[in-house]
Amino acid sequence: MSLTFWRMAAAIFWNKSRPEGAPDPHEKAQRPRQKACALIRCRGLYPLPAIVGPDTLPDHYLNRYHVMHLKTFITLSILVFLGIMNLSNTSTGAAPGPKRGNLVHMVSFKFKDSSTKQDRTQVEKAFAALNKKIPQIISYEWGTNNSPEGLNKGFTHGFVLTFHSNQDRDDYLIHPHHKAFGALVGPLLEDVFVVDFWNKTE
Predict the structure, then answer these.
(1) Are residues 152 and 90 in the same domain?
(2) How many helices (H) and strands (E) does the chain have?
(3) How many Å apart are CA 39 and CA 67, to the nearest integer?
(4) What pTM did the predictor assign?
(5) How many Cβ atoms are within 10 Å of 165's Cβ, its own excluded?
(6) I need a surface site. Which of 66, 94, 119, 149 has the fewest CB within 10 A?
């Protein structure tokens, strides 16, 4: 008997013996071929004769479809991963560092023994306020000495300001707010140390 006869007999037997509502395995097995055939025809991916259908689709066409499907999946997965990483960086605050000028102005204070903690706190707040009062200041940082080397020679406070140009630095030095700050801090200091330099990375 022909192969077609046995296929028909198997189909009749399955339809009679399978429970109501059970999936047809032949139909399920044909779904990839149906999708591949429709996609190939729609996109014109490969030459496909008009008489070819899901039942007669050659295996090499189906293999090409699976490879293309896998490539699409991998590409979409990479794009999703990159998008998640970008959102993660944004949400975790992975923002650029603070803006800085290339001209660095370093100042260190050595307070008199007669100065009080309240005096020093007042100086710290007054110096920090200059960052908002004088527009030429690009960045401002400060801190107190914590070096274990013991080479600070009594200097306890360090301040680092940056500017874009010599002119900006000079304008800062003669600014009325800076002059007022000097009048405040002068009587409290035993010594002051200042170094200016152009920032270099090499």
Answers:
(1) no
(2) 6, 4
(3) 13
(4) 0.53
(5) 12
(6) 149
